[in-house]
Amino acid sequence: MSIRLSNGSEIPIEMHKIRIVQKVRLVPARERLRAIEEAGYNTFLLRTRDIFLDMLTDSGTNAMSDNQQAAMLVADDAYAGSESFYKLADAVKEYLGYEYLLPCHQGRAAEHLLAKTFIKPGTFIPMNYHFTTTKAHFNLMGATVLELFGPEALNTQSSDPFKGNMDMGRLKSAIEEHGAAKIPFVRMEATTNLIGGQPFSLANLREVKALLAPLNIPLVLDASLISENAYFIRQREPGYENVSIAKIVREMMDVADICYLSGRKSCMVRGGLIATNRKDLHEAIRPWLPVYEGFYTYGGMSSKEIEAMAVGIREMTELEIASSSADAIKWFCGRLIDAGVPVVTPPGGLACHLDAMRFIPQVPQTEYPAGALAAAAFIVSGIRGMERGTISMDRDEAGNDVPSDIELLRLAVPRRVFTMSHFIYATDRLQWLMKHRDLIGGLEFYDEPPILRFFGGRLKPKNDWGTRLTEAFEKDFGTKC
């Protein structure tokens, strides 16, 4: 949460104590250059030993609480009927309001089960924006994803508080064009990942539900970042200024027909789940759980993870935790803006997002500017971010690149992991990079998987710009930095 200082400024203040630490290394720039070359200029393929600040993702990288760690010690390891499962089911019912629970090993497993159960070739899935694995699962089952975002969603210099809203006019048109029978469900993602962690409003969620209910089209809520979305509603939506995070979360859940989530984010533990109050939907999904995940009471999760998730669901509804990364991201983005670094505004959940097309306008989309910026940032800082641009899009059926709507370098802020000095360091190195951005060039693939290529693809720089960038950095900072 943020507090106001005597000079009128605000800072995010950590509502926790650091009791266990993990050492990190800051290797010289020349070693970082070697590491990114060996990784094929893909930050996913870097080794931890070469990374100083790991801002690749907030998925499974958050600091667990003492209560979560303690809960893991009393886990019931029974294959079937584990008491740990019933603790999770109780937490889901109390805090999310759902009667039926299906555990799974992570969010993409939930997406797979939903796709397997409800999607047929020729169907259409409207959503406020896609996520990479979501779109892949739905496309593989023969569906077409319809991204029905509003006019401000792709504006990286916006003041719109709810860029994650569904455009109601576009949704109505899509239903009229394709017919309700060809729409198995509509998906809403809490704090839309790929456009900068932007939230939707409760008013918009209710509008979507009101349109779908008479047509018997289920509303599916990706609640992986539900805690942050609730916090933004509290901060930005009139009438919710003094409403608790727990109540806002429950109101969102009451609107949805199905909720699924990756526990790696708001719950701060590895695992996932699908939950609903509709028995028909639960019974449709349930037979596939032991086929693809595991028995009904563990679903691919360890009993220790189940225990920790039960605690995490309760803790994510606390204001201090819901605000922890969001306030840090806001402060970090503010420092970068002051330093002249182009970031997505307003700051969202999940991460600080740099606008690569404004940062390095000389690199065309055909040469993957977001990927190039991610590699350049690592060379000059040891910070590992993630490309969220055209590399994150798969090629079309003809083998052509599909340009991303926007090109972002995502610098994730895991909950309760980094300190203020880390953000100050990151700001300094990115400011230096901004001043030397003319040194950054494009990339091209030399090893490319057919799907989800951003995970394992390898690229090389055009014109060896990585070496020139390293030499410029060493000239200013020396060979030991």
What does this structure look like?
The chain is of the alpha/beta class. 39% of the residues lie in helices and 13% in strands. It has 19 helices and 16 strands. A 5-stranded mixed β-sheet has the order 4-10-9-8-7, with helices on both faces. A 3-stranded antiparallel β-sheet has the order 11-14-13. Strands 1-2 form a two-stranded antiparallel sheet. Strand 1 (2-4) and strand 2 (10-12) form a beta hairpin. Helix 1 packs antiparallel against helix 16 and helix 4 (107-118) runs parallel beside helix 5. The model has no long low-confidence stretch (mean pLDDT 96).
Question: What's the layout of helices and strands?
Answer:
Layout: E1 2-4, E2 10-12, H1 29-38, E3 53-54, H2 66-72, H3 83-96, E4 100-104, H4 107-118, E5 124-127, H5 132-140, E6 144-147, H6 168-178, E7 186-189, H7 202-212, E8 219-222, H8 226-236, H9 245-255, E9 258-262, E10 272-276, H10 279-285, H11 289-292, H12 303-315, H13 319-322, H14 324-338, E11 351-355, H15 356-359, H16 369-381, E12 383-384, E13 386-388, E14 408-412, H17 420-435, E15 443-447, H18 453-456, E16 458-461, H19 465-477
Parallel strand pairs: 3-12, 5-6, 7-8, 8-9
Antiparallel strand pairs: 1-2, 4-10, 9-10, 11-14, 13-14, 15-16
Helix pairs in contact: 1-16, 2-12, 3-12, 4-5, 7-9, 8-9, 14-17, 16-17, 16-19
Strand content: 5-15%
**Mean pLDDT value:** 96
Regions with pLDDT < 50 over 5+ consecutive residues? none
Shape: globular
The total tally of domains equals 2
**Helical content (DSSP H or I, runs of 4+):** 25-40%
Strand order of the largest sheet: 4-10-9-8-7
Under CATH, the topology of the largest domain can be stated as: Aspartate Aminotransferase, domain 2
Kindly report the name of the CATH homologous superfamily of the largest domain: Type I PLP-dependent aspartate aminotransferase-like (Major domain)
What is the number of beta strands? Answer: 16
Major sheet attributes? 5 strands, mixed
CATH architecture of the largest domain: 3-Layer(aba) Sandwich
CATH class of the largest domain: Alpha Beta
- The first-to-last residue Cα distance is 33 Å
Structural class: alpha/beta
Helix segment tally: 19
